[in-house]
Amino acid sequence: MNKEIATPNRTKEILQKYGFSFKKSLGQNFLIDPNILHRIADHAGITDQTGVIEIGPGIGALTEQLAKRAKKVVAFEIDQRLLPILDDTLSPYENIKVIHQDVLKADVAAVINEEFQDCDEIKVVANLPYYVTTPIIMKLLEEKLPLNSIVVMLQKEVADRMAAAPANKDYGSLSIAVQFYTEPKTVMTVPKTVFVPQPNVDSAVIRLALRDGPAVSVDNETFFFQLVKASFAQRRKTLQNNLINNLFAEKAGKQMIEDALETAGIDGRRRGETLSIKEFGHLANILFAKL
Ligand code: SAM
């Protein structure tokens, strides 16, 4: 039986065998610590009835751990050079399908429909390419895929922003976007030393548990997110000034905004970063009704 792919020696052997050179532009930092991979897979709570989507299998270090636990793993990999390597390293496993595609361009809903009919639940587990962490997570959430949870390794700084509570310095539109759809929890921080090559930033594993419905009921999601974005446009400005300057193209909305803040019982002199997701939802619904 071969050693696990993620052991430093086996990884080195595989990279040498194929003369593989890392592409920084594709966020290629591979994990070389089996213990960390076991812990990621454990945090995902996978059973033999779980269908798993992986993004960026690399040489298959995490894929292997997922395949040992899951019913089926479907992995999206953008780098063609990795396909023959994955064919080789993952050959002992029958329950893995690798799709050669940029996940941002993939029709993930169709893949789920096709591949996971016989699974009880679907989870995303990945060590994400750091140059596209946020677009990937937002795509998975905004497409309202039937996912149970997303457990991913990413930059610690991004994990902190996703999980931040109001009034925290990291709280902003990303916190609200992620918390609208999920309950986030950072489950571990990870040192740079467990990757080859080592990334420049600290890493963390975050678990996003998908909510049954959004955290707050809003009449128009697009408008809700426009309002959130406008509220954080200039962090040092008051909520009222940010909304007046950034929500509508013209300042004609000034009176409407002042009235809506009053109806919502929200002091316009507060800063956006002090508002809870519920307060944003309430304010968005009042303003939207006036449009
Ligand atoms: N899972 C492996 C591990 O943990 O060692 C590799 C993780 S590495 C951080 C990120 C992987 O994502 C690389 O294999 C890279 O080629 C791939 N990747 C980068 N951009 C991608 C994209 N847009 N769609 C799919 N895969 C991508």
From TrEMBL:
Localization, UniProt: Cytoplasm
UniProt GO molecular function: 16S rRNA (adenine(1518)-N(6)/adenine(1519)-N(6))-dimethyltransferase activity; RNA binding
A GO CC term assigned to this protein in UniProt: cytosol
UniProt keywords, alphabetically: Cytoplasm, Methyltransferase, RNA-binding, rRNA processing, S-adenosyl-L-methionine, Transferase
Catalytic reaction(s) noted: adenosine(1518)/adenosine(1519) in 16S rRNA + 4 S-adenosyl-L-methionine = N(6)-dimethyladenosine(1518)/N(6)-dimethyladenosine(1519) in 16S rRNA + 4 S-adenosyl-L-homocysteine + 4 H(+)
Binding residues annotated for S-adenosyl-L-methionine, in chain numbering: N29, L31, G56, E77, D102, N127
Primary localization: cytoplasm
Residue span, Ribosomal RNA adenine methylase transferase N-terminal domain: 36-212
Function according to Swiss-Prot or TrEMBL: Specifically dimethylates two adjacent adenosines (A1518 and A1519) in the loop of a conserved hairpin near the 3'-end of 16S rRNA in the 30S particle. May play a critical role in biogenesis of 30S subunits.
Name the UniProt record assigns to this protein: Ribosomal RNA small subunit methyltransferase A
Protein source organism: Bacillus gobiensis
Gene, per the UniProt record: rsmA
